[in-house]
Recover the amino acids of this structure.
């Protein structure tokens, strides 16, 4: 019996780099080619205010594991995640949640000014200032972590071009 390969493409980057937008476009491109997959925005799995004793990171990965199990039960073997991966431990948690045997990490980049502008337009609530400031801080953390297999510039380019380049480099579609 042949082993089943479960592939995982993680789209990482700072706040405002375009992870969620590129994830959505990647899902559309794969669907248009009839490629079965699941596209999951990991941040959406942790929108909660938990009691102080609870760990939101643990809950996010538990939620991710459950979502991936449901998709696997439906026959999905290709996963795309949008998630800012700050260290190897987070990378391993995502790999384990998807039970992935193949992992590729793409980092989206843009200038700090562009990322902060995008976050500022998107986040207009009470934490606006904190989110805008966090874009630069998170970018520095990701610069130090160097967990990506390749980098895609996501500034001043068409969304479909950025996404197609990512999917080709990740080996998910042919050029």
């Amino acid at each position: 019996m042949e082993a089943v390969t479960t592939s995982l493409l993680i789209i990482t980057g700072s706040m405002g780099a375009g992870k969620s937008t590129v994830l959505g476009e990647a899902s559309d491109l794969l669907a248009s080619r009839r490629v079965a997959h699941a596209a999951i925005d990991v941040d959406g799995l942790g929108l909660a205010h938990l009691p102080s004793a609870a760990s939101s990171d643990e809950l996010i990965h538990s939620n991710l594991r459950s979502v991936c199990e449901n998709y696997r039960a439906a026959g999905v073997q290709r996963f795309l995640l949008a998630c800012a991966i700050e260290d190897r431990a987070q990378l391993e948690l995502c790999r384990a949640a998807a039970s992935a045997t193949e992992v590729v990490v793409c980092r989206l980049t843009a200038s700090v000014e562009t990322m902060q502008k995008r976050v500022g337009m998107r986040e207009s609530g009470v934490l606006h200032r904190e989110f805008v400031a966090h874009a630069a801080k998170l970018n520095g953390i990701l610069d130090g972590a160097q967990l990506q297999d390749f980098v895609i510039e996501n500034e001043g380019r068409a969304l479909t071009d950025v996404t197609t380049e990512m999917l080709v480099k990740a080996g998910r579609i042919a050029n």
Remarks:
- The chain has one domain: 7-169.
- The helical segments are 19-32, 56-73, 88-98, 112-122, 128-145, 159-169.
